[in-house]
Specification:
18% strand; 7 strands; 9 helices; single chain; alpha/beta; DUF1788 domain-containing protein; 193 residues; seven-stranded mixed β-sheet
Length: 193
């Protein structure tokens, strides 16, 4: 397998292809991709994403923009806007983590069609963009990546979506941090082998 640097360096040429941005994967499926990586490389991946985002978005010749959605930051933003962030800290102190996790899931409507995170991404995505989803590890255990992908897949199909996943993706299974098995997710393609 290629090193993390070699794999990261291949992303730019992939996302710049017109065929990639027309958002059709293999078999004419909607273009959802996973870039999996060893969690030990989290900082390197974050730095590369920031570098690539600045390079593409600041280029006057670029025909698209990279939109990054950090799942953890979205959770914090939504809870803050709704005035629940301080209450969540109190819940955790008084009622424990499991209760708090369930309360956050209910507040964010993670199990429904009106999932606030999915709607946030959809509402803030423009045409001629490539969506990067980050913060998967930071948002665990509040949010599971397959939940976001399954729900987003139903409402966002105009632009390609790349989830940066700290773990392994076999083409069927997502294994967060290399140890936590998520539900099967088979609609995404590996971005870089």
């Amino acid at each position: 397998m290629d090193s993390i640097d070699e794999r990261l360096n291949r992303i730019e040429s992939i996302i710049k292809k017109d065929s990639f941005r027309k958002n059709k994967g293999l078999g004419n499926e909607v273009g959802y991709y996973i870039f999996d990586y060893d969690p030990q490389n989290e900082i390197k991946v974050r730095e590369y994403i920031e570098h690539l985002k600045n390079k593409v978005n600041d280029s006057p010749n670029s025909s698209f923009k990279i939109l990054e959605f950090d799942l953890y930051n979205i959770i914090i933003e939504i809870l803050s806007e709704k005035g629940y962030l301080d209450k969540i800290f109190e819940f955790e102190k008084e009622k424990g983590r499991e209760f708090t996790k369930k309360a956050i899931n209910n507040l964010l409507k993670l199990s429904s069609e009106s999932n606030l995170i999915v709607n946030y991404i959809k509402e803030n995505t423009s045409l001629n963009s490539v969506v990067f989803i980050t913060g998967v590890g930071k948002s665990y255990p509040l949010l599971r990546s397959h939940n976001v992908l399954n729900n987003l897949h139903q409402v966002l199909d105009e632009v390609p979506v790349v989830m940066f996943f700290p773990g392994a993706y076999s083409g069927n299974d997502l294994i967060l941090f290399g140890t936590i098995h998520d539900n099967n997710y088979y609609r995404a393609f590996p971005l870089v082998e």
